[in-house]
Design a protein that fits this description.
Layout: H1 6-21, H2 26-30, E1 35-39, E2 47-50, E3 55-57, H3 66-79
Antiparallel strand pairs: 1-2, 2-3
Length: 91
């Protein structure tokens, strides 16, 4: 197995920590200091509304498909927060 560069190793560690303790690929966007809102339209690149009112496009996608987005939202709704809750895109 090839050795990772220090930057790649740091990115891998962060991704694993986000998957275990945070909100997976969402965590990177949530950690941007000036982000006020995150807008998602399926598997497209998220749009970020900054505190100063600017709208910026995220550098990478959070998900690869609409189905993956639904699964991630269901997981977050069910397991993050004070109690388990169901989430259905049809509700």
């Amino acid at each position: 197995m090839p050795q990772l560069s220090p930057q790649a190793e740091t990115a891998l560690i962060q991704a694993v920590e986000n998957a275990i303790w945070g909100l997976g690929p969402w965590q990177e966007l949530l950690d941007i200091p000036n982000v006020q809102d995150i807008y998602l339209a399926g598997a497209r690149l998220p749009m970020l509304r900054m505190r100063d009112g600017r709208i910026e496009q995220a550098r990478q996608r959070i998900v690869d498909s609409d189905e993956e987005l639904t699964q991630q939202i269901q997981h977050i709704a069910a397991y993050h927060g004070s109690s388990e809750r169901a989430f259905s895109p049809s509700q």
